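A further point concerns the way the authors explain their paired sequence and structure data. For illustration, here is how one protein appears when written out as sequence plus structure tokens:
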Amino acid sequence: VLSFLMQTVSNNVDTTAPVVSQTSLKDSKTLVLTFAENLATTTAAAQAFSVTTAGTTNPVTAVKVNGKTLELTLTNAVAAGDAMTWSYAAPTADVAVTNAAVQDVVGNDMVAVNSQTLDTNRPTLSSVVTSTSRSVITMTFNEALLSTGLPAATQFEVYGNSSGAHPVSTLSVSGNVLTLNLSTPLSATEIASLVYKGTTEAIGTSNTALQDLAGNDFLQTGTVSIADKVNPLLSAKAMGAQAANGTFNQVVLTFDDALAATTPVATDFSVKLGTTAQTITGVQVNGKDVILSFA
């Protein structure tokens, strides 16, 4: 006779309803709902969904399950910038996986969803800066970008006003940041600019473009200046104007890059003649020079 000791048994049953984590357009007539878990292949009828585009009903004609995504085929194509909403009318909850409902693989039904807005706003560029090596360009946007289906490196053109074109060799996306690696670095003192030559705007995430997670393409308008993250370096220092009595009353500090016109305050500097501290009476910025006048 076999004897068994009491054993503790854990019964971890999934009772959590699936929830939409992201919505996007695959193309102009396919709305994609993405979930955090796989869905059962038996799903809701097309009539359970309501979609509007530009304020007009856009009937769903077909529903397709593909792992964690649900694809809704629309009657009418969506135009760029059209406002969109979607809703889902859930049937009475049923733990079986055979009922006509959006459900996970163990039969948890999705609850009703009312008038959810789809992002149809194009991403906008917040800043463009160089790295300290001037071989990397960082483009920061107002929202996360899709990391797949990126445009070709040749669609980005980087120019230095003295060194000319600097081809982009590779690019990558992380969150809301696009990184461009240049084949040759920009010069330390030149002014740089960037042009993105996007393809014709298309609706959805299936096209090759710089776009947000919902499939809205970024549209570049003209040339963008690239901000310089390299600190100016002091390249020379010299005495400036000479007073009538033969003494000098100016010091000129020359940097390797043009300086902003914003004038620093006199107390940021100190000047000594020999061991005697001088009172700085004026600070002037002129191109690459900072001119300090003292009594």
Summary: The chain has a mean pLDDT of 90. The radius of gyration is 31 Å.
